[in-house]
Amino acid sequence: MTDLSAPRPLPELPLHGLAACPECDLLMHKPVLALGEQAQCPRCDYELFTHRPQVLGRSLALVLAALLLYIPANFLPILRLNLLGNSTRDTMWGGVLSLYNSGMQSVALVVFLCSMAIPLLKLLCQLLVLLSIRWRVGRTYGLLLYRIYHHLRDWGMLEVYLLGILVAIVKLMDIADLSLGIGLGCFIGLIVVQIWLEVSMSPQQIWLALSEEDGYAGD
Q1: Among residues 178, 185, 179, which one has the least CA distance to residue 72?
Q2: Which terminus of the chain has a smaller tally of CB atoms within 10 A, N or C?
Q3: Are residues 42 and 71 both part of a single domain?
């Protein structure tokens, strides 16, 4: 006779075909999507998977555009200020140097890291990841760089600096003669391209392309 009170081992489920929703932790089977389709969590409607067309080509174009905008955004004048006969041209790099020379080295370091160094590292990581998928080489290093990129995402705060620039423009308009420089347009363009890149570079497709030898990123 079978002892029904004895504990029974639970059946083992294959984990490679399961996915957990990052918002509500619902465990479900990974769907198979056609080109252009997306899957949402049935509990909280969070977008889980998206199969976007031409992810690789579009993302490469956006990364290169962002890298081209990076230098003028940081080294060309953002504002030209004329106050009491004194004229100055302010840049992002000039702001870092001004903070450093005025004795606020720690603040200058934070501004440099969050506004210049980390955004550049993010773009370089994305470029190398996309090239490793395109050329089908260095997938292990590509996985490492993509993990590093995800750790750096919360430290690039270009939107905060743009808000600070806009506040400064509003505050200084009544007391000085201001003119906007080409660096401000490049800085705004850099932010727009980076946001577009975040939307276009589907994480699920990139992880899949890096994890599989014949990975396909929808290009």
Answers
A1: 185
A2: N
A3: no
For 218: left if phi > 0, alpha if psi spans -120 to 50, otherwise beta; the answer is left
Residue 194 maps to a domain: yes
Other beta carbons within 10 Å of 219: 16
Domains identified in the chain, total number: 2
Distance of alpha carbon 44 from alpha carbon 28, whole angstroms = 13
Task: Domain of residue 175: give its range.
Answer: 56-211
Quick: pLDDT tens for 140-181.
Answer: 889 999 999 988 887 777 777 777 777 777 777 777 677 788
**Distant-in-sequence contacts of 150-156, Cβ < 8 A, 24+ apart:** 152/118, 152/121, 152/122, 152/125, 153/122, 155/113, 155/114, 155/118, 156/114, 156/118, 156/119, 156/122, 156/194
